[in-house]
Amino acid sequence: MQLYPWQEDLWVKWFGKGQNITGQSFLLYTGKGQGKRHFAHYLSQSWLCESPLEKGKACGLCQQCHLFTVGTHPDFLLIEGDGAGEGKNITIDMIRNMLKWSILTPQLANKRIVVIYLAEEMNVYAANSILKMLEEPVNHTVFILLSEHPYKLLPTIRSRCQRIDLGKASMQQSIDWLHTTLPQAHYIKQTLIVSYGAPLWAKKLLDQAGFETLQQCFTQLLAVYLYQQEPLQVAEQWQKIAFINEWLYYWVMECIYAKETGHISPVLKVLAKQELLDYFLSQLNTQQMFVLLDKVIQWKTQENVLNRLLMIESFLLQWQLRQ
Ligand SMILES: [Zn+2]
User: Fold this and answer.
1) How far is the CA of 46 from the centre of ligand 1 (A)?
2) Number of separate domains in the chain
3) From the CA of 2, how far away is ligand 1's center (Å)?
4) Which residues make beta-bridge pairs with 76?
5) Are 244 and 148 in the same domain?
């Protein structure tokens, strides 16, 4: 396992100088698509490793490293919501089971490590339950809480953790990395712009469909609003696009923002031609847009294969009817 290039400096600063762990609870935070979970796994392996290399990195060869790599290390536990970061709650039962596990003596390593992804998805009971453990930790257990929105956590949880801002990849770091990882990919810079500069998100998009598909979907969205395309026809095409519900959420937000402020964001600018955007925005009525936004948020959290086409159809019909 390797760190992403944009994480190297941060690693050296926080963990690479042979520092002993001074705390037992860490809160690592950064935006979506920046590699939080990867960083936490990397960190966990290095802490479980029997003979870490220079800069504190895992050796990759010992028994601990081997078990960690194949995903069966008995002293490592990952807790995540059902929606893998898409809004589902981490429940009190999950946290209770984790707490029972965390107080047991480590089986193979000298510590147990718990990673929680994403900590803000703990519901209020789960959050209160873990708080007690953070206040009176068991010596051998380390908690790594990951977050995209640390301000959504209880202040008491934040204050009991060592907080580390994982930062964000620069545009150039992201472009370089995507060029190396996907040498055949086109429109890397544009893809990064629509992915809000998040390299892993951009990679997912390039892996799945590519920038041109996304651009086409956005143009169709505007065309449906302007009565130039049939909602049901567009829905038929969109149902094959795995990530469309995620994008719609951002696009509706962007459209509202552009209409209300008169400022067109770089995301919209790379998705459609200026004249089309101007005309669309001149026609856009934002009054009902928040209802649509709610719909997309619900859809984001409830999606299943059976009702996918229905949901897209209903969204597009409502979008065209402007109500
Ligand atoms: Zn090792």
Assistant:
1) 7
2) 2
3) 13
4) 113
5) no
Residue 191 phi, psi dihedral angles, 5° rounding: -65, -40
Predicted TM-score (pTM) of this structure? 0.88
Distance from the alpha carbon of residue 49 to the mean position of ligand 1, in angstroms: 4
**What range does the domain containing 279 cover?**
209-321
Dihedral sign from CA coordinates of 304, 78, 250, 177: negative
The verdict on residue 219 lying in a domain is: yes
**294 lies in some domain:** yes
How many angstroms is it from 47 CA to the middle of ligand 1?
A: 9
Residue 53 CA, ligand 1 centroid: distance in Å: 8
Instruction: Count CB-CB contacts under 10 A for residue 173.
Output: 16
* Pair 98, 11 in one domain: yes
Exposed/middle/buried for residue 114 (C-beta within 10 Å: 0-12, 13-18, 19+):
buried
- Kindly give the confidence (pLDDT) of every residue in the chain, 323 residues in length, as a single tens digit, with 9 standing for 90 and above: 899 999 999 998 888 776 556 668 999 999 999 999 999 999 999 999 999 988 889 999 999 999 999 999 999 999 987 654 455 589 899 999 999 999 999 999 999 999 999 999 998 899 999 998 898 888 899 999 999 999 999 999 999 999 999 999 999 999 999 999 999 888 999 999 999 999 999 999 998 878 999 999 999 999 999 999 999 999 999 988 877 888 898 999 999 999 999 999 999 999 999 999 999 999 998 887 888 888 887 776 665 656 788 889 989 999 998 76
Taking the centre of ligand 1 as the mean of its atom positions, its distance from the CA of residue 74, in whole angstroms, is: 15
Ligand 1 centre from 73 Cα, in Å?
A: 12
What CATH number should be reported for the domain holding residue 120?
3.40.50.300
Within a domain: 84: yes
